[in-house]
Amino acid sequence: MGGAYQFYNRTMQQRRINAPQAGSLAADHALALAGIIGEDKGAAMPMNQAITQARAAEKNSAGARKARKTRQALIDAGVALFNKAGYEATSVKEIVAEAGLTKGAFYHHFESKEHFLQLIYQDYLNYQLEIFREVITHSATPRERVAELISCMIFAVDRYREHVTIFFQEQRSFPKAYRESMVNARDMLKAEFQKAIRQGIASGEFRSDLDPDVAAMALLGMCSWTYQWLSRSGRLPAERISEIFAGLALHGLCKDG
To answer: Which domains does the chain have, with CATH numbers?
Structure first.
């Protein structure tokens, strides 16, 4: 259990996976292909295939590095300003001034301020889903999977705390269709917890009286809420917090406590 957080650091280093570029149109397109924010979910391809294709297309395009740098600068500026003054009180003019860019650059990469807000949270979600797939691929037992899924969520919230804070504070500003897509994405995360819990019950590791749906939502909520108080300058590092959370969860799930 204690090595779950290190699992992510090690795996990410081995694969040289960095967080998807903030506001990346390729990542956005990948999610649309995968059926998360697209309308035609029946034609969705697997997430890993979609992301691979989208990233390959972006890397092969001329000026991709400069474009990613520009989008990153805009996202960083927007995140800082939204956290300071709020979404409604921040103008596109202020965002580009903070980034040292122009409105033309902003509207080249984003359709609107609303679209820009969506991609801020999408950046976090892309990363969350990517490291969840690492857990699914590498964890051996239900006990390990639950511990690593918890570490995965703490890891992502720690890295993207400002993005998550903006989403929860400004979610009313998201269009209905996008809020629904976020519920679908949340359900994907919840499903992995449910699957691990059901497997644990079937194998005899976890208590048979558990309701997998309720238990999964409890774990998901426990981890998501850390955005309210998790701090890189706090008394405990995120790694230690993830170990404590995993211990609490497994104590409640496992037959032997």
So the answer is: 1-16+138-257 (1.10.357.10)
